[in-house]
């Protein structure tokens, strides 16, 4: 039996097995003396957990470790479920702070910044973004990232390269390529092939989905292709942004004679496996139809603020609403805080714990395994938080601590799939300085290609 504490120095050790490769015969890890947190129903309980392989196998007030178990002495620290970003844009990490002209409208941002940026991505940049964005997620306590990717000049192989970047860090990835007609029929078909082929071969910590760009960029042939792709994958989930700005409905009606929701429903594309991000500009009739399909609605308050597209009515999103970071940092603690505070400002306060817990329910559906509950049989995706509350922490006031106290600064260790990926605030499989240097080089190259394209 080996005892570890979350420090490296006098009295502390690194965990015995910190990387993906382990000897034959899994050794158990026992987390002792911590406060285990569950989100819905809320629970804060001083209890031990035992992890074996990729799962939690025992829970109790005073578990007895086996002779080959590693024991982590937590001394009152929190054991918190790993967080889920249900709509993410990993590639955006390389665009942070890039030169851009002053723009006023959503359409100008798309046409003069977002789409030229996507066009400038190559496969090397995609992989670097996966690693850099994945590292940021890990350090923030986000263990599952549902990414909707687009790199129109480098489509084939892009999701595999994105997965390689994430794999270096060790977080979970649910990846989709955003199919669009912006690059014509060839780009559309290549996007469909990429999103389907990746989904068919994804395994382990990775899953694939069918992805789509905003509805106003998708014509009838693309809608048919998306329906066929879903059937090819056994009616898997569709991941797309919906009504982020009124432009989505206006151009859908102008170009195709129907609203985004009408077109999606007519094509049979919405189901309980769908993930619809933003959902900020739908009338009540359309929103009610979307909710009736059972789709997951992903609220992205910080990204919406950044683009100045208005506040999405999150309280009206129904029982299957959750959170995503989109193109901003993968800090789901910050996202939850922004979501709650903006909802209060709008006079429509949301249940922030339910929103976070729904991320786990959605991930459980995708991976066909329990993700989130700190219970026997669940996948061991968890955080150790060095949070010393100034007031009592109970199930009744957990939401207040999440909103007003807890943050990514408290993330001390991260386990994904039963493997420690960060320990004593240090990532264990990558060097942050090396990842940052590679990302800066890749970002400079992408920005240079954007500048060159703008001259033509």
From TrEMBL:
Keyword set includes Hydrolase: yes
TM regions (residue ranges): none
Keywords: Hydrolase
Record domain Amidohydrolase-related: where: 78-420
Record flagged with keyword Hydrolase: yes
Domain of life: Bacteria
Pfam families reported in the protein's UniProt record: Amidohydro_1
PANTHER family, A to Z: AMIDOHYDROLASE-RELATED DOMAIN-CONTAINING PROTEIN, AMINOHYDROLASE SSNA-RELATED
Name of the featured protein: Cytosine/adenosine deaminase
């Amino acid at each position: 039996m080996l005892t570890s504490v979350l420090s490296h120095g006098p009295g502390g050790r690194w965990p015995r097995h910190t990387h993906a490769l382990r000897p034959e015969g899994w050794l158990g890890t026992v987390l002792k003396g911590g406060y285990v947190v569950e989100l819905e129903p809320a629970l804060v309980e001083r209890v031990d957990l035992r992890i074996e392989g990729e799962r939690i196998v025992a829970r109790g007030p005073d578990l007895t470790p086996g002779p080959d178990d590693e024991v982590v002495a937590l001394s009152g620290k929190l054991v918190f479920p790993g967080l889920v970003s249900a709509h993410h844009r990993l590639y955006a990490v390389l665009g942070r702070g890039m030169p851009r002209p002053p723009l006023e409208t959503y359409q100008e941002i798309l046409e003069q910044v977002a789409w030229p940026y996507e066009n400038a991505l190559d496969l090397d940049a995609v992989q670097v973004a996966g690693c850099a964005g994945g590292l940021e997620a890990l350090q923030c306590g986000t263990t599952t990232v549902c990414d909707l990717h687009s790199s129109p000049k480098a489509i084939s192989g892009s999701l595999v390269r994105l997965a390689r970047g994430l794999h270096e860090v060790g977080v979970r990835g649910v990846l989709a390529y955003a199919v669009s007609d912006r690059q014509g029929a060839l780009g559309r078909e290549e996007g469909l092939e990429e999103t389907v082929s990746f989904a068919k071969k994804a395994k382990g910590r990775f899953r694939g989905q069918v992805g789509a760009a905003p509805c106003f960029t998708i014509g009838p042939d693309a809608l048919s292709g998306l329906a066929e792709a879903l059937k090819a994958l056994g009616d898997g989930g569709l991941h797309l942004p919906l009504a982020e700005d009124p432009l989505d409905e206006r151009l859908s009606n102008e170009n195709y004679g129907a609203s985004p929701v009408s077109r999606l429903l007519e094509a049979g594309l919405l189901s309980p496996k769908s993930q619809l991000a933003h959902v900020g500009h739908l009338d009540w009739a359309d929103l009610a139809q979307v909710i009736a399909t059972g789709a997951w609605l992903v609220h992205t308050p910080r990204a919406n603020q950044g683009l100045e597209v208005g506040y999405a009515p999150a309280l009206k999103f129904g029982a299957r609403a959750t959170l995503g970071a989109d193109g901003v940092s993968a800090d789901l603690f910050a996202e939850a805080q922004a979501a709650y505070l903006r909802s209060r400002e709008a006079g429509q306060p949301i249940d922030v714990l339910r929103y976070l817990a729904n991320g786990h329910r959605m991930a459980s559906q995708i991976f066909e395994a329990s993700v989130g509950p700190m219970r026997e049989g669940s996948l061991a995706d968890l955080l150790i938080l060095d949070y010393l509350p100034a007031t009592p922490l109970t199930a009744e006031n957990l939401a207040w601590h999440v909103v007003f106290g807890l943050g990514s600064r408290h993330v001390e260790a991260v386990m994904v799939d039963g493997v420690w990926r960060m320990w004593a605030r240090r990532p264990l499989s990558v060097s942050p300085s090396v990842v940052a240097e590679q990302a800066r080089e890749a970002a400079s190259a992408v920005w240079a290609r954007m500048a060159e394209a703008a001259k033509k």
